[in-house]
Amino acid sequence: MIHFLNNLVSPDNCKMLVSEFRKQQKTRINADETHLLVNNETTYGFKGYGEFDKLLDSLKPIITDLNGNKKIKNVNSFVREYKNGSVLKKHVDRDDIGITLSICLFSNIRNEWPLYAEYDNVEISHNTNVGDGLLIINSHEITHWRDKLICDENECVIQLFLHWKEISFIKKSLI
Q1: Which of 49, 71, 48, 46 shows the shortest CA–CA distance to 60?
Q2: Could you give the 3-state DSSP secondary structure of residue 66?
Q3: What's the mean pLDDT in 74-81?
Q4: Which of 65, 89, 94, 171 is deepest in the core (most CB within 10 A)?
Q5: pTM
Q6: What percent of the chain has pLDDT over 90?
Q7: Cα 86 from Cα 157, distance rounded (Å)
Q8: How far apart are the first and last CA of the chain?
Q9: Distance between CA atoms of 55 and 137, rounded to whole angstroms?
Q10: Contact by Cβ (8 Å): 76, 129
């Protein structure tokens, strides 16, 4: 299941989170620079903390509702900057994730850069503007990706990824 969530994060909150991202980028603490190569250079990303992780809790009621009111637990947040030439390869998420929300925090590109997904043998795509989110329920089963970003060298997109997992209750028989 895929849901487009318009204006999910306010412009002020996006600016605050981008500011936190830029501070983290300067120190390179918690950096994950091996994840994505662009033009033989790595882009900057890191596992979220603090203000990024707070969104896991504040958006949880919305996500729970869209997931049929099934209980979910927080997994993690992750933030990444994409520059000219960036590609998000076709993939499914790890099994310990199951619900992925991709939120655009910043974009100064002049063209669209949609997120694609293949759902029920149909390819869909949706562009996310600043503050918008795209929610993929069962992201560990649904293939999703972004094509190569074509933009000027001074342009970029910053995406925040929030991950949850549905809580499954398994009955154990007493023997």
Answers
A1: 71
A2: helix
A3: 90
A4: 94
A5: 0.85
A6: 59
A7: 10
A8: 38
A9: 17
A10: no
- What digits encode the pLDDT tens for the residues 112-139? 999 999 988 899 999 999 999 999 999 9
Asked if 134 and 128 touch (Cβ cutoff 8 Å), the reply is yes
- Token look-up 């998420």 returns 93
How far CA 121 is from CA of 87, 90, 118, 124, in Å, comes to 22, 15, 6, 10
44 neighbors 80 (Cβ within 8 angstroms): yes
Query: Which token pair is 155?
Result: 């342009």
Domains and CATH numbers, the chain: 2-166 (2.60.120.620)
The stretches of the chain forming alpha helices (DSSP H) are 11-27, 50-58, 60-66
User: Dihedral of the CA atoms 167, 14, 128, 24 (nearest 10)?
Assistant: -80
Determine which helix (DSSP H) or strand (DSSP E) holds 80, and give its type and residue range.
Answer: strand 72-83
Angle between helices 50-58 and 11-27 (to 10 degrees): 140
pLDDT at 34: 44
Structure tokens at 66: 């869209």
**Residue pair 140/92 in contact by the 8 Å Cβ criterion:** yes
Token pair 């033989």 is found at 40
| pLDDT per residue as tens digits for the range 34-60 | 444 444 444 556 666 678 889 999 999
